[in-house]
Design goal:
The complex is a heterotrimer of chains A (109), B (83) and C (537).
Chain A (H helix, E strand, L loop, with lengths): L1 H17 L2 H7 L6 H26 L1 H24 L2 H20 L3
Helix pairs in contact in A: 1-3, 1-4, 3-4
Chain B lengths: L1 H28 L4 H25 L3 H20 L2
Helix pairs in contact in B: 1-2, 1-3, 2-3
Chain C lengths: L4 H29 L3 H7 L10 H15 L5 E5 L8 E6 L8 E5 L20 H9 L5 H25 L16 H15 L1 H14 L1 H4 L2 H6 L4 H9 L18 H10 L5 E7 L7 E6 L11 E5 L5 E5 L4 H14 L5 H28 L7 H30 L7 H22 L2 H26 L4 H7 L2 H28 L23 H12 L1
Antiparallel strand pairs in C: 1-2, 1-4, 2-3, 4-5, 5-6, 6-7
Classes of the chains: A mainly alpha (109), B mainly alpha (83), C alpha+beta (537).
């Protein structure tokens, strides 16, 4: 549950970052065209809201909101740190982190 | 320099006085049971304090800064007589 | 003030942040570790073994109190729970919060005939907890007002920081360590501030709310004619019993009353138990609801007749404002937080600590290029003494806990002294040492102390990692593991401080400043600079 919420939040922030000038340049080879940005922004926010829903169903209403804030902070910090790394190091780190995460998410139970 | 000193006095002393009088006014004027109204005033007073500090350093002149604290303070202090 | 609104707010942010910053850093760091106050307290009492049911602990409390203070005015009982392995009892001969004799016991009485297990006297995690809101200065009210004033400064700094930040969304994830100097510190300060903004606002405002009664009592003067006790009685439902009748009477067993209270709260946790006039016909038992199972800390309580166990009164209702207050209070203390959520609070607290630290270092870095004046030198020494010195002092306290003989009388005073003594030493070092050393030495010492602590723990007690991990005492093991994990961080900080602070290495790419302070975060400089160029293209 927490892992899922964290994954959704991280994905949401990556998508939001793609809609931002500086971060899009850091993340993608080509920056997304203007028309795509509004959609990216909407998709990113949607993912963050999905993370909120996951938190609230896992922790219960009020505590879910508190947990969501914490999960968002953690996810955003990790993305900021990752973006500060040189690109090659970043790709390797991302793979090292994402693959086990994906495994944990897909693992039943 | 004198301006900064005046503003600081207005922000810290005046801001606290304003927050305290807002807490008092809320306790008297809010249409709630008196314990609830008193607590509501306490809870909101810190926002008033912070806003007053921002105002004191945002105002164009030190005089305006002090006046901007003194006027609402006078208004809220009527709660002390108007009960 | 300045030419524009934004410039005025930037000015206010700088000076408000600087003057409140050193105290705020200490408050944030000690407050953050206070999320694990119970675990740290348990770590500091290695003789204490977990185990024992509530019934056994309650029976022990009743026996001990009846033996030690049969005619007291008030008994206090705090039963062990999931995070606290110890039983706490207290007694007082008069009304009011002062005058209590408190004792920490093992929850189960040692089996008959055996010598009782002596639990070392220690300040426990309480030292960090109390320090974070009253700085442990005397009189304690002065410390609380000082911390509150700094909290108002923090509130102002947060608001002005948001106003001043030019590109809050455009630079959301930006950390340009590659540029080094003030730019890197500013990016770090911004990111740490923005990414945990809800936490910073919450913890600052709720911190003020916890002291609302002390800071803003003026409304009570109007509505209650200055009778603060009447306000507290009405607001928080304090149910004080009458005087004793001097007719001796045995106390009814407490366990059925606790069961009744639990039923009344629909399975809610039991908090503190107070017994008034325990040996008298007027005996009363006040059971207060615990705060570990939900966010709001409402003052729900049940009053029982101590001679019959009959329920006399219940305090339940919470108006909307009281509910708000209770939620804000509960959010600050975070006693409701389950382990994972507690971890997120801890992380957010560390982010807040780092935000204050980077802000302080930014102030000196920005002004490093000019001829350093007296003010700059004082600020730089205070920075090192606080930011690098406090962790050393905190670790020294834990070392002292293991090194001071367990049987030494008043040993908790020596623990207290070792904390403040080490910190004073760190300040002295920060004043006397030159630029790289004043950061490198304390961080290096912190790394050694942190790495050595689990070893020392294993050498001096039986509650070491090998034992606690095997028995599943995660709270105590977590303290060891967290401290162990902090060792490489401190080592890294020390290494970077020495590397970048050394005079021979101050050659910088043009356009960067900050040859004077440690660019701790600039470790990836060369490779990242290459990438930055690639990105500009």
């Amino acid at each position: 549950m927490t892992l899922l919420a964290f994954g959704l939040a991280e994905a949401g922030f990556v998508v939001l970052a793609l809609a931002m000038d500086r971060h899009a340049r850091q993340l993608a080879v080509r920056r997304p065209p203007t028309w795509a940005r509004a959609k990216l922004r909407a998709a990113g926010l949607l993912l963050l809201l999905l993370a909120l829903r996951t938190c609230m169903s896992g922790w219960g209403g009020a505590e879910g909101v508190v947990a969501w804030c914490g999960v968002l902070t953690l996810a955003a910090l990790l993305l900021a740190l990752a973006l500060a790394l040189p690109r090659r190091v970043r790709t390797a780190t991302a793979l090292l982190v994402l693959l086990p995460l994906l495994g944990a998410l897909l693992h039943p139970g | 320099m004198a301006g900064v000193a005046l503003r600081t006095v207005g922000a810290v002393g005046g801001g606290y006085a304003l927050a305290a009088s807002a807490a008092g006014a809320a306790a008297v004027w809010l249409p709630l049971p008196r314990a609830e109204a008193t607590l509501a005033g306490m809870l909101a007073s810190f926002a008033v304090f912070a806003a007053a500090i921002l105002w004191c350093f945002a105002a164009r002149s030190a005089t305006r800064a002090l006046a901007g604290v003194a006027l609402p303070l006078a208004l809220l202090l009527t709660a002390w007589w108007g009960r | 003030m300045k030419a524009s609104f934004r410039a005025s707010m930037a000015w206010l942010h700088t000076w408000c942040g600087l003057f409140a910053g050193w105290i705020l850093f200490a408050v944030f760091l000690t407050g953050t570790v206070s999320y694990y106050r119970q675990e740290i307290s348990a770590w500091m009492r290695p003789e204490l073994h977990a185990g024992g049911t509530r019934t056994k602990a309650l029976r022990r409390a009743e026996t001990e109190l009846a033996r030690r203070a049969p005619h007291a005015r008030t008994w206090l009982i705090e039963l062990p729970d999931a995070r606290t392995p110890s039983l706490r009892i207290g007694w007082s001969d008069r009304d009011g919060p002062g005058g209590f004799t408190l004792q920490t016991l093992a929850p189960v009485a040692p089996a008959g005939g055996e010598a009782p297990i002596a639990i070392r006297r220690t300040v426990g995690g309480d030292l960090f907890y109390y320090f974070h809101f009253d700085l442990l200065v005397l009189p304690f009210r002065l410390g609380r007002w000082l911390v509150s004033l700094c909290a108002v400064g923090m509130l102002v700094a947060i608001l002005t920081g948001v106003i001043t930040h030019r590109r809050i969304f455009a630079d959301f994830f930006t950390l340009r360590f590659a540029k080094g100097g003030a730019r890197a510190w500013l990016d770090a300060h911004n990111a740490l501030g923005v990414l945990a903004l809800p936490y910073h606002l919450m913890i600052t405002y709720t911190g003020l709310v916890t002291f609302a009664l002390m800071l803003m009592p003026w409304g009570i003067d109007l509505t209650y004619g200055g009778n603060r006790a009447a306000f507290q009685a009405e607001m928080f439902g304090q149910m004080l019993p009458g005087p004793r009748a001097d007719r001796p009477h045995a106390l009814a067993p407490l366990a059925p009353m606790l069961d009744a209270a639990e039923r009344h709260w629909g399975g809610g946790a039991i908090g503190r138990i107070a017994v008034f006039n325990p040996d008298d016909a007027t005996a009363r038992v006040l059971v207060t609801r615990g705060d570990t199972d939900r966010i709001p800390i409402t003052r729900q309580s049940l009053l029982f007749d101590g001679t019959t166990g009959a329920e006399l009164a219940a305090r339940d209702e919470a108006g909307p404002v009281e509910a708000t207050w209770a939620t804000l209070y509960g959010l600050h203390l975070a006693r409701f937080a389950a382990p994972l959520l507690r971890g997120l609070f801890f992380l957010s607290g560390l982010v807040g600590t780092a935000m204050v630290a980077t802000g302080l270092i930014l102030w000196t870095t920005k002004r490093a290029g000019r001829a350093p004046g007296r003010g700059w030198r004082i600020a730089a020494a205070l920075n090192a003494g606080t930011i690098a010195g406090l962790p050393v002092a905190m670790l020294a306290l834990l070392w002292a806990n293991r090194l001071i003989p367990a049987a030494l009388p008043a040993r908790e005073v020596w623990e207290f002294r070792s904390f403040f003594g080490t910190w004073l030493l760190a300040f002295a070092a920060a004043t006397l040492l030159g630029r790289p050393l004043r950061w490198g030495v304390p961080f290096g010492v912190a790394a050694v102390l942190a790495a050595g602590l689990p070893v020392l723990n294993a050498l001096t007690t039986g509650a070491h990692l090998g034992a606690t991990l095997r028995s599943g005492a995660w709270g105590v093991a977590g303290v060891d593991l967290t401290i162990l994990a902090s060792a490489p961080v401190f080592a890294c900080l020390a290494w970077m401080a020495m590397r970048h602070g050394a005079p021979s290495r101050t050659v910088r790419p043009p356009g960067t400043e900050g040859g004077r302070v440690l660019p701790v975060l600039a470790g990836t400089r060369r490779s990242a600079a290459t990438e930055e160029r690639a990105e500009v293209r």
